[in-house]
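Re: Re: ligand-bound prediction request (bumping)

Still looking for help on this. To restate: I need the protein modeled with LLP bound, output as structure tokens. Inputs repeated here so nobody has to scroll up.
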Amino acid sequence: MHYFEYKNGELYAEDVKVQDLVKEYDTPLYIYSARTFKRHFTAFDSAFKELKHLTCYSVKANSNLCILKLLGQMGAGMDIVSGGELFRVLKAGIDPQKIVYSGVGKREHEIEEALMADILMFNIESEDELKKINEVAQRMNTTARISIRINPDVDPKTHPYISTGLKKNKFGLVEDIALQAYKLAKDLPHIQPIGLDCHIGSQLTSIDPFLDALDKILEFKDKLSDLDIEIKYLDLGGGLGITYDQENPPHPSEFGQALQQKLANQDLTLILEPGRVIAGNAGILVTRVLYNKKTPTKNFIIVDAAMNDLIRPSLYKSYHKIAPVVQKNKTNKIVVDVVGPICESGDFLAQERELPEMQSGELLAIFSAGAYGFTMSSQYNSRPRAAEILVDGDKITLARRREIYMDLIQLEDNCI
Ligand code: LLP
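Reply:
Sorry for the wait, this slipped through. Here it is.
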């Protein structure tokens, strides 16, 4: 569900015509809907209302400050994976006691910064990391609250690049090793184990893998009780999928009910780290048609957005719905590849897609681009990054200005 809708054949972002935004801000243009963000956050968060819980939005999905502030004001905590994300969420005014820090490769200065901020907990992914955090905490004369990420060896049945809870993945620790790590954590003077963590993958379209992982984790928790390690937080990560095309993912309320059944008798605070389910369908990327090109075997629509703006189709062959911003009644449909200007054959936004014939200068909207869209964008081919707009009703905020050529070279002072 989202608030990008056609009225009289024209696409609107909430109460604002997409065409009007393009007139003002040009293309390629990311447009986010505040109402959609709010609706998704509320739907997700209220799904767990019967349980003590904290919804920590996964910043990597969409880390624009305006979005972090909006979610923070609604009570969201944050799941971060870097010092940069910590910097952002603190700037957005998030309560550090609502911040959890995940990721396999936390650097020393990042650990220091997180300890300084006094975040809720670190989700630890290796014994080496545990020792490093203890060492940094000792130097700072403080204690780090931690959980250890369990790798439950559960198949999330999603794209291999975004599966994380299988034994072969780099993430988390398998149970035996995790148990040793908890024993170590208990003995380390500057570490306080308070949680258990797990994240099995992203874009899951069934809740069964979550429940399988949860069963394993709850069994594991009993082993920790035998060691006198008291777990107060259970972090189940993110991963709930969305509809890009024909997927039919469970509604958060279904997920909530299933978890409630399993956790009703546990004295735990549940932490969830949703990213895509909050942000994915709350954003579109608008692009302008540059040229049509016909080869002996294919029709191409060449547009001004490219893999540097939205890499998901190139990287995962992901499907994003694409449709004209202004609907036309009588045009022929043709099968096309929608491609960008970048010098790689992998630079496509859609392949073999049926679309109405488009003229140069017309606009296309790429849907479901609110998560892992702008955050994964780059300046490849020296293309300044797109602008980001946040619409709330008829209110328009330039959430990030379009980069200019000077932005491309501004850090290369020594060479100018
Ligand atoms: N927590 C942890 C520890 C994670 O690694 C992730 C995502 C999340 C939470 C949020 O997962 P979500 O609810 O968004 O599924 N670039 C890929 C997705 C990578 C996800 C990485 N980790 C894509 O565009 O599909």
